[in-house]
Amino acid sequence: MFASVYVAGSRRGRSLSGDQFSKDLLSLARYFSPRLEMVDARTVVLDVTGLRGMWGSPRAFGAAVQRKAIEQGIHCRVALAATRIAAVLSVYGRTDALTVIKPGREATTIATLPLDILTRVANFGLQRNAAIPLEVRNRNVSRMINIFKRWGLATLGDLAALPRDALFSRFGTEGVMWQKCACGEESQLLIPTPENRPFEVALDFEWPVEGFETLASGLRPMLESLVLQLSHEGVAAAVLTVRLWLVTRVWYTRTLQLPAPICDSRMLCTLLVLNLKSHPPPAGIDRVVVTAIPAPSRITQFSLFEKAVPSIEQLSTLLARLKILMGSERCGTPVLSETHHPNAFDVGPFDPTVSSAIHLEAAEETGPIAISRRFHLPLVAQVTVDCGCPVLVSASGGIGRRSVERCAGPWRSSGHWWEQTQSVDQELSTGYWSRDEWDVELDDGSVYCIYRDRTHGEWFVAGFLD
Protein backbone atom coordinates (compact mmCIF):
# COMPACT_ATOMS: atom_id res chain seq x y z
CA MET A 1 0.00 0.00 0.00
CA PHE A 2 1.26 3.48 -0.92
CA ALA A 3 0.15 6.92 0.21
CA SER A 4 0.58 10.04 -1.93
CA VAL A 5 0.56 13.45 -0.23
CA TYR A 6 0.16 16.65 -2.25
CA VAL A 7 0.63 20.04 -0.59
CA ALA A 8 -2.04 22.32 -2.04
CA GLY A 9 -1.17 25.39 0.04
CA SER A 10 -0.49 26.76 3.49
CA ARG A 11 -2.76 27.70 6.36
CA ARG A 12 -2.67 30.59 8.82
CA GLY A 13 -1.78 33.08 6.09
CA ARG A 14 1.72 31.66 5.62
CA SER A 15 3.53 32.44 2.36
CA LEU A 16 5.97 29.63 1.62
CA SER A 17 8.54 29.24 -1.13
CA GLY A 18 9.11 26.04 -3.09
CA ASP A 19 12.04 25.01 -0.90
CA GLN A 20 10.00 25.56 2.27
CA PHE A 21 7.16 23.46 0.84
CA SER A 22 9.64 20.64 0.19
CA LYS A 23 11.09 20.85 3.71
CA ASP A 24 7.65 20.83 5.36
CA LEU A 25 6.52 17.97 3.13
CA LEU A 26 9.60 15.86 3.92
CA SER A 27 9.19 16.53 7.63
CA LEU A 28 5.55 15.44 7.45
CA ALA A 29 6.32 12.31 5.42
CA ARG A 30 9.26 11.12 7.55
CA TYR A 31 7.06 11.35 10.65
CA PHE A 32 5.02 8.43 9.25
CA SER A 33 7.40 6.33 7.13
CA PRO A 34 11.15 6.20 6.48
CA ARG A 35 10.58 4.89 2.94
CA LEU A 36 9.43 7.75 0.75
CA GLU A 37 10.07 9.20 -2.70
CA MET A 38 9.76 12.82 -3.77
CA VAL A 39 7.76 13.20 -6.99
CA ASP A 40 8.17 16.98 -7.15
CA ALA A 41 8.47 19.91 -4.73
CA ARG A 42 4.86 19.50 -3.54
CA THR A 43 4.24 15.74 -3.86
CA VAL A 44 5.65 12.75 -2.00
CA VAL A 45 4.86 9.02 -2.04
CA LEU A 46 5.15 6.92 1.13
CA ASP A 47 5.48 3.17 1.41
CA VAL A 48 3.03 2.33 4.22
CA THR A 49 3.29 -1.44 3.90
CA GLY A 50 3.34 -3.03 7.34
CA LEU A 51 2.21 0.10 9.21
CA ARG A 52 -1.36 -1.07 9.86
CA GLY A 53 -0.49 -2.16 13.40
CA MET A 54 0.77 1.35 14.22
CA TRP A 55 -1.75 3.57 12.39
CA GLY A 56 -4.71 1.30 11.75
CA SER A 57 -6.67 1.05 8.49
CA PRO A 58 -5.66 3.00 5.34
CA ARG A 59 -8.43 5.54 5.98
CA ALA A 60 -7.22 6.00 9.57
CA PHE A 61 -3.67 6.48 8.27
CA GLY A 62 -4.82 9.15 5.83
CA ALA A 63 -6.73 10.95 8.56
CA ALA A 64 -3.63 10.90 10.78
CA VAL A 65 -1.57 12.45 7.96
CA GLN A 66 -4.11 15.24 7.58
CA ARG A 67 -4.18 15.95 11.32
CA LYS A 68 -0.37 16.18 11.39
CA ALA A 69 -0.42 18.47 8.36
CA ILE A 70 -2.89 20.80 10.10
CA GLU A 71 -0.54 20.95 13.09
CA GLN A 72 2.29 22.03 10.77
CA GLY A 73 0.09 24.68 9.15
CA ILE A 74 -0.14 23.19 5.66
CA HIS A 75 -3.12 22.12 3.55
CA CYS A 76 -2.73 18.81 1.74
CA ARG A 77 -4.61 16.09 -0.11
CA VAL A 78 -3.95 12.40 0.60
CA ALA A 79 -4.61 9.37 -1.61
CA LEU A 80 -3.89 5.72 -0.75
CA ALA A 81 -3.73 2.89 -3.29
CA ALA A 82 -2.02 -0.42 -3.91
CA THR A 83 0.24 1.17 -6.55
CA ARG A 84 2.23 4.38 -6.48
CA ILE A 85 1.06 5.67 -9.84
CA ALA A 86 -2.61 5.24 -8.92
CA ALA A 87 -2.09 7.15 -5.66
CA VAL A 88 -0.24 9.99 -7.43
CA LEU A 89 -2.80 10.33 -10.23
CA SER A 90 -5.64 10.33 -7.70
CA VAL A 91 -4.09 13.01 -5.53
CA TYR A 92 -3.53 15.17 -8.62
CA GLY A 93 -6.87 14.63 -10.33
CA ARG A 94 -9.37 14.42 -7.44
CA THR A 95 -10.32 17.29 -5.17
CA ASP A 96 -11.26 15.13 -2.18
CA ALA A 97 -9.13 15.70 0.90
CA LEU A 98 -8.78 11.93 1.42
CA THR A 99 -9.09 9.21 -1.20
CA VAL A 100 -8.72 5.49 -0.45
CA ILE A 101 -8.67 3.10 -3.41
CA LYS A 102 -9.38 -0.54 -2.66
CA PRO A 103 -6.94 -3.07 -4.21
CA GLY A 104 -8.09 -4.02 -7.70
CA ARG A 105 -10.13 -0.83 -8.17
CA GLU A 106 -7.26 1.39 -9.38
CA ALA A 107 -8.23 1.46 -13.06
CA THR A 108 -11.92 2.17 -12.30
CA THR A 109 -11.14 4.99 -9.84
CA ILE A 110 -8.80 6.94 -12.12
CA ALA A 111 -10.65 6.19 -15.38
CA THR A 112 -12.49 9.52 -15.35
CA LEU A 113 -9.34 11.63 -15.00
CA PRO A 114 -8.33 13.68 -18.11
CA LEU A 115 -5.41 12.65 -20.30
CA ASP A 116 -3.55 15.91 -19.64
CA ILE A 117 -2.82 14.72 -16.10
CA LEU A 118 -0.13 12.42 -17.52
CA THR A 119 2.08 15.46 -18.19
CA ARG A 120 2.42 15.92 -14.42
CA VAL A 121 3.96 12.47 -14.01
CA ALA A 122 6.32 12.58 -17.02
CA ASN A 123 9.33 11.96 -14.78
CA PHE A 124 7.52 9.47 -12.55
CA GLY A 125 5.38 7.18 -14.66
CA LEU A 126 8.11 5.98 -17.04
CA GLN A 127 11.24 4.09 -16.21
CA ARG A 128 14.07 6.50 -15.43
CA ASN A 129 16.62 7.09 -18.16
CA ALA A 130 19.31 9.61 -17.21
CA ALA A 131 20.43 9.90 -20.85
CA ILE A 132 17.08 11.56 -21.80
CA PRO A 133 16.65 15.08 -20.36
CA LEU A 134 13.42 15.92 -18.56
CA GLU A 135 12.53 18.56 -21.18
CA VAL A 136 12.70 15.90 -23.92
CA ARG A 137 10.50 13.52 -21.93
CA ASN A 138 7.92 16.28 -21.37
CA ARG A 139 7.88 17.04 -25.09
CA ASN A 140 7.41 13.37 -25.95
CA VAL A 141 4.52 13.04 -23.49
CA SER A 142 2.81 16.17 -24.84
CA ARG A 143 3.21 14.93 -28.40
CA MET A 144 1.73 11.53 -27.51
CA ILE A 145 -1.22 13.10 -25.66
CA ASN A 146 -1.98 15.27 -28.69
CA ILE A 147 -2.04 12.14 -30.85
CA PHE A 148 -4.40 10.43 -28.40
CA LYS A 149 -6.72 13.45 -28.48
CA ARG A 150 -6.79 13.37 -32.29
CA TRP A 151 -7.90 9.76 -31.97
CA GLY A 152 -10.84 10.95 -29.89
CA LEU A 153 -9.50 9.91 -26.47
CA ALA A 154 -10.27 12.23 -23.55
CA THR A 155 -9.76 10.28 -20.30
CA LEU A 156 -7.43 7.71 -18.82
CA GLY A 157 -10.20 5.14 -19.17
CA ASP A 158 -10.26 5.70 -22.93
CA LEU A 159 -6.51 5.06 -23.10
CA ALA A 160 -6.77 1.98 -20.87
CA ALA A 161 -9.41 0.49 -23.17
CA LEU A 162 -7.13 0.46 -26.25
CA PRO A 163 -5.73 -2.90 -27.43
CA ARG A 164 -2.26 -3.17 -25.96
CA ASP A 165 -0.78 -5.02 -28.95
CA ALA A 166 -1.96 -2.36 -31.40
CA LEU A 167 -0.66 0.38 -29.10
CA PHE A 168 2.75 -1.29 -28.93
CA SER A 169 2.94 -1.56 -32.73
CA ARG A 170 2.46 2.21 -33.03
CA PHE A 171 4.32 3.65 -30.01
CA GLY A 172 6.56 0.83 -28.79
CA THR A 173 7.26 0.25 -25.12
CA GLU A 174 6.66 3.91 -24.21
CA GLY A 175 3.04 3.72 -25.34
CA VAL A 176 2.52 0.53 -23.33
CA MET A 177 4.07 2.22 -20.26
CA TRP A 178 1.60 5.10 -20.44
CA GLN A 179 -1.31 2.71 -20.86
CA LYS A 180 -0.16 0.90 -17.72
CA CYS A 181 -0.15 4.26 -15.94
CA ALA A 182 -3.71 4.87 -17.16
CA CYS A 183 -4.68 1.48 -15.72
CA GLY A 184 -2.98 2.22 -12.41
CA GLU A 185 -0.41 -0.56 -12.94
CA GLU A 186 3.05 -0.26 -11.43
CA SER A 187 5.99 0.06 -13.84
CA GLN A 188 8.95 0.51 -11.47
CA LEU A 189 9.98 0.17 -7.86
CA LEU A 190 10.01 2.94 -5.29
CA ILE A 191 13.41 4.63 -5.05
CA PRO A 192 13.72 6.08 -1.52
CA THR A 193 14.77 9.70 -1.23
CA PRO A 194 17.88 9.85 0.97
CA GLU A 195 17.63 11.62 4.28
CA ASN A 196 19.20 15.06 4.26
CA ARG A 197 21.97 14.36 6.74
CA PRO A 198 25.73 14.48 6.32
CA PHE A 199 27.59 11.29 5.44
CA GLU A 200 30.98 11.94 7.03
CA VAL A 201 33.90 9.99 8.47
CA ALA A 202 37.08 11.29 10.12
CA LEU A 203 40.46 9.89 11.13
CA ASP A 204 43.22 11.36 13.34
CA PHE A 205 46.78 10.21 12.68
CA GLU A 206 49.20 9.58 15.54
CA TRP A 207 51.95 11.39 13.61
CA PRO A 208 51.97 13.60 10.50
CA VAL A 209 51.51 11.70 7.25
CA GLU A 210 53.33 12.81 4.10
CA GLY A 211 53.34 9.74 1.83
CA PHE A 212 50.37 8.79 -0.33
CA GLU A 213 50.69 5.08 0.48
CA THR A 214 50.22 5.75 4.19
CA LEU A 215 47.34 8.10 3.42
CA ALA A 216 45.69 5.47 1.19
CA SER A 217 45.94 2.85 3.95
CA GLY A 218 44.05 5.23 6.24
CA LEU A 219 41.46 6.19 3.62
CA ARG A 220 40.44 2.58 2.85
CA PRO A 221 38.71 1.79 6.19
CA MET A 222 37.22 5.29 6.26
CA LEU A 223 35.63 4.84 2.85
CA GLU A 224 34.44 1.34 3.72
CA SER A 225 32.57 2.83 6.69
CA LEU A 226 31.23 5.65 4.52
CA VAL A 227 30.01 3.24 1.83
CA LEU A 228 28.30 1.15 4.53
CA GLN A 229 26.39 4.24 5.69
CA LEU A 230 25.38 5.03 2.11
CA SER A 231 24.27 1.46 1.35
CA HIS A 232 22.03 1.42 4.43
CA GLU A 233 20.15 4.38 2.92
CA GLY A 234 20.09 2.86 -0.57
CA VAL A 235 22.16 5.67 -2.10
CA ALA A 236 25.66 6.20 -3.50
CA ALA A 237 28.27 8.95 -3.41
CA ALA A 238 27.86 11.64 -6.07
CA VAL A 239 30.38 14.17 -4.67
CA LEU A 240 33.30 13.51 -2.33
CA THR A 241 34.97 16.24 -0.30
CA VAL A 242 38.21 15.46 1.55
CA ARG A 243 39.51 17.96 4.12
CA LEU A 244 43.07 17.61 5.40
CA TRP A 245 44.17 19.30 8.63
CA LEU A 246 47.82 20.09 8.01
CA VAL A 247 50.68 20.53 10.46
CA THR A 248 50.65 24.22 9.51
CA ARG A 249 47.23 24.46 11.24
CA VAL A 250 45.23 25.12 8.07
CA TRP A 251 42.64 23.07 6.22
CA TYR A 252 43.45 21.77 2.72
CA THR A 253 40.25 20.86 0.83
CA ARG A 254 39.69 18.93 -2.37
CA THR A 255 36.27 18.23 -3.92
CA LEU A 256 35.81 15.31 -6.31
CA GLN A 257 32.79 15.48 -8.61
CA LEU A 258 32.09 11.88 -9.61
CA PRO A 259 30.78 11.20 -13.14
CA ALA A 260 28.07 8.94 -11.68
CA PRO A 261 26.98 7.85 -8.18
CA ILE A 262 29.50 5.25 -6.96
CA CYS A 263 29.19 2.92 -3.97
CA ASP A 264 32.49 1.04 -4.27
CA SER A 265 35.01 1.81 -1.51
CA ARG A 266 38.04 0.62 -3.51
CA MET A 267 37.06 2.73 -6.50
CA LEU A 268 36.46 5.80 -4.33
CA CYS A 269 39.80 5.35 -2.59
CA THR A 270 41.62 5.10 -5.92
CA LEU A 271 39.95 8.24 -7.27
CA LEU A 272 40.67 10.23 -4.11
CA VAL A 273 44.33 9.23 -4.02
CA LEU A 274 44.78 10.04 -7.72
CA ASN A 275 43.16 13.43 -7.20
CA LEU A 276 45.45 14.20 -4.26
CA LYS A 277 48.48 13.08 -6.26
CA SER A 278 47.63 15.58 -8.98
CA HIS A 279 47.08 18.29 -6.32
CA PRO A 280 49.34 17.31 -3.39
CA PRO A 281 48.94 19.06 -0.03
CA PRO A 282 51.75 21.49 0.85
CA ALA A 283 52.51 19.98 4.29
CA GLY A 284 52.07 16.91 6.46
CA ILE A 285 48.59 15.70 7.42
CA ASP A 286 47.32 15.33 10.99
CA ARG A 287 43.61 14.69 10.37
CA VAL A 288 41.42 13.54 7.46
CA VAL A 289 37.68 14.23 7.07
CA VAL A 290 35.76 12.75 4.12
CA THR A 291 32.21 13.93 3.36
CA ALA A 292 29.90 12.45 0.71
CA ILE A 293 26.89 14.05 -0.97
CA PRO A 294 24.44 11.20 -1.70
CA ALA A 295 22.42 10.49 -4.82
CA PRO A 296 20.22 7.56 -5.93
CA SER A 297 22.24 4.54 -7.03
CA ARG A 298 22.75 4.12 -10.76
CA ILE A 299 20.99 1.16 -12.39
CA THR A 300 22.60 0.13 -15.67
CA GLN A 301 20.61 -1.73 -18.31
CA PHE A 302 22.70 -2.85 -21.28
CA SER A 303 21.27 -3.24 -24.78
CA LEU A 304 22.08 -5.66 -27.57
CA PHE A 305 21.49 -2.97 -30.19
CA GLU A 306 23.68 -0.15 -28.83
CA LYS A 307 27.41 0.37 -28.93
CA ALA A 308 29.16 -0.92 -25.82
CA VAL A 309 30.85 1.73 -23.69
CA PRO A 310 33.19 1.30 -20.70
CA SER A 311 31.73 1.45 -17.23
CA ILE A 312 31.67 4.82 -15.50
CA GLU A 313 33.89 3.51 -12.71
CA GLN A 314 36.63 2.24 -15.05
CA LEU A 315 36.43 5.35 -17.22
CA SER A 316 36.72 7.75 -14.28
CA THR A 317 39.78 5.90 -12.96
CA LEU A 318 41.44 5.95 -16.38
CA LEU A 319 40.79 9.67 -16.82
CA ALA A 320 42.15 10.41 -13.34
CA ARG A 321 45.41 8.60 -14.17
CA LEU A 322 45.69 10.37 -17.53
CA LYS A 323 45.18 13.77 -15.89
CA ILE A 324 48.11 13.05 -13.55
CA LEU A 325 50.36 12.18 -16.51
CA MET A 326 49.23 14.84 -19.01
CA GLY A 327 47.49 17.53 -16.94
CA SER A 328 43.78 18.12 -16.51
CA GLU A 329 43.67 20.71 -19.31
CA ARG A 330 44.93 18.11 -21.84
CA CYS A 331 42.40 15.32 -21.16
CA GLY A 332 38.84 15.41 -22.50
CA THR A 333 36.84 15.80 -25.68
CA PRO A 334 37.69 18.51 -28.24
CA VAL A 335 34.87 21.03 -28.69
CA LEU A 336 34.54 24.00 -31.01
CA SER A 337 35.60 27.40 -29.72
CA GLU A 338 33.76 30.68 -30.19
CA THR A 339 36.04 31.79 -33.02
CA HIS A 340 36.47 31.37 -36.77
CA HIS A 341 40.10 30.34 -36.43
CA PRO A 342 40.42 27.00 -38.28
CA ASN A 343 42.76 25.41 -35.71
CA ALA A 344 41.09 26.62 -32.50
CA PHE A 345 39.34 24.22 -30.14
CA ASP A 346 38.71 23.75 -26.44
CA VAL A 347 38.81 20.64 -24.29
CA GLY A 348 35.57 19.61 -22.57
CA PRO A 349 34.64 16.72 -20.28
CA PHE A 350 34.87 13.30 -21.92
CA ASP A 351 31.49 11.54 -22.21
CA PRO A 352 31.42 8.62 -24.70
CA THR A 353 27.62 8.30 -24.61
CA VAL A 354 27.02 11.94 -25.56
CA SER A 355 29.58 11.94 -28.37
CA SER A 356 28.20 8.70 -29.81
CA ALA A 357 24.66 10.04 -29.73
CA ILE A 358 25.72 13.22 -31.51
CA HIS A 359 27.54 11.32 -34.25
CA LEU A 360 24.63 8.92 -34.78
CA GLU A 361 22.13 11.77 -34.94
CA ALA A 362 24.28 13.64 -37.48
CA ALA A 363 24.68 10.52 -39.62
CA GLU A 364 20.94 9.88 -39.65
CA GLU A 365 20.10 13.47 -40.61
CA THR A 366 22.72 14.08 -43.30
CA GLY A 367 23.56 10.61 -44.62
CA PRO A 368 27.03 9.81 -46.04
CA ILE A 369 29.35 12.81 -45.83
CA ALA A 370 33.00 13.56 -46.56
CA ILE A 371 35.13 13.87 -43.44
CA SER A 372 37.92 16.44 -43.26
CA ARG A 373 40.81 15.08 -41.20
CA ARG A 374 43.08 17.92 -40.11
CA PHE A 375 46.68 17.52 -39.00
CA HIS A 376 47.35 18.70 -35.47
CA LEU A 377 50.46 20.47 -36.80
CA PRO A 378 50.14 21.51 -40.46
CA LEU A 379 52.74 20.01 -42.79
CA VAL A 380 55.17 22.41 -44.42
CA ALA A 381 54.80 22.16 -48.20
CA GLN A 382 56.35 23.48 -51.39
CA VAL A 383 53.75 24.49 -53.95
CA THR A 384 54.30 25.52 -57.55
CA VAL A 385 51.75 28.05 -58.82
CA ASP A 386 50.76 28.68 -62.43
CA CYS A 387 48.36 31.50 -63.30
CA GLY A 388 47.48 31.86 -59.63
CA CYS A 389 46.53 28.17 -59.18
CA PRO A 390 48.62 25.39 -57.54
CA VAL A 391 49.89 22.84 -60.07
CA LEU A 392 52.49 20.90 -58.04
CA VAL A 393 52.55 19.98 -54.34
CA SER A 394 55.53 18.55 -52.48
CA ALA A 395 55.29 17.68 -48.76
CA SER A 396 56.19 15.05 -46.20
CA GLY A 397 53.74 12.77 -44.36
CA GLY A 398 53.37 10.30 -47.25
CA ILE A 399 52.35 12.93 -49.80
CA GLY A 400 55.58 13.13 -51.75
CA ARG A 401 55.80 15.16 -54.95
CA ARG A 402 52.48 15.13 -56.77
CA SER A 403 50.93 17.09 -59.60
CA VAL A 404 47.53 18.71 -59.10
CA GLU A 405 44.73 17.34 -61.30
CA ARG A 406 41.96 19.66 -60.07
CA CYS A 407 41.75 22.49 -57.59
CA ALA A 408 39.12 24.73 -56.02
CA GLY A 409 39.76 28.07 -54.37
CA PRO A 410 41.12 30.27 -53.11
CA TRP A 411 39.02 30.99 -50.02
CA ARG A 412 40.54 33.85 -48.12
CA SER A 413 40.04 34.00 -44.37
CA SER A 414 41.54 36.17 -41.68
CA GLY A 415 40.87 37.22 -38.13
CA HIS A 416 42.23 38.84 -34.99
CA TRP A 417 44.04 41.36 -37.22
CA TRP A 418 44.24 43.70 -34.22
CA GLU A 419 46.67 41.21 -32.67
CA GLN A 420 48.90 40.95 -35.75
CA THR A 421 52.48 39.85 -35.01
CA GLN A 422 55.60 39.09 -36.99
CA SER A 423 56.26 35.61 -35.60
CA VAL A 424 54.68 32.30 -36.50
CA ASP A 425 54.97 31.16 -32.86
CA GLN A 426 53.20 34.29 -31.66
CA GLU A 427 50.47 33.75 -34.25
CA LEU A 428 49.36 30.61 -32.44
CA SER A 429 49.27 32.36 -29.08
CA THR A 430 47.48 35.55 -30.16
CA GLY A 431 45.00 34.00 -32.60
CA TYR A 432 45.86 36.19 -35.63
CA TRP A 433 45.69 34.51 -39.03
CA SER A 434 45.40 35.43 -42.71
CA ARG A 435 45.45 32.73 -45.36
CA ASP A 436 44.28 31.62 -48.81
CA GLU A 437 42.83 28.07 -48.69
CA TRP A 438 42.62 25.54 -51.55
CA ASP A 439 41.17 22.07 -52.04
CA VAL A 440 43.39 20.10 -54.43
CA GLU A 441 43.03 16.65 -55.99
CA LEU A 442 46.42 15.06 -56.67
CA ASP A 443 47.34 12.62 -59.43
CA ASP A 444 46.89 9.63 -57.08
CA GLY A 445 43.23 10.52 -56.42
CA SER A 446 43.70 11.91 -52.91
CA VAL A 447 42.18 15.26 -51.93
CA TYR A 448 44.07 17.61 -49.59
CA CYS A 449 43.37 20.96 -47.98
CA ILE A 450 46.30 23.34 -48.44
CA TYR A 451 46.71 27.00 -47.65
CA ARG A 452 49.13 29.86 -48.14
CA ASP A 453 50.02 31.98 -45.11
CA ARG A 454 49.67 35.50 -46.50
CA THR A 455 51.71 36.99 -43.65
CA HIS A 456 54.88 34.95 -44.30
CA GLY A 457 54.22 33.63 -47.82
CA GLU A 458 54.61 29.95 -46.80
CA TRP A 459 52.49 26.98 -47.88
CA PHE A 460 51.09 24.28 -45.58
CA VAL A 461 49.00 21.14 -45.84
CA ALA A 462 46.14 21.46 -43.31
CA GLY A 463 44.58 18.00 -43.79
CA PHE A 464 42.85 15.67 -46.25
CA LEU A 465 39.35 14.57 -47.17
CA ASP A 466 38.37 11.00 -46.31
UniProtKB/TrEMBL annotation:
Q: Which residues form a coiled coil?
A: none
GO terms (BP aspect): DNA repair
- SUPFAM superfamilies for the chain: DNA/RNA polymerases
Q: What is this protein called?
A: UmuC domain-containing protein
Q: Which UniProt keywords are present, listed alphabetically?
A: DNA damage
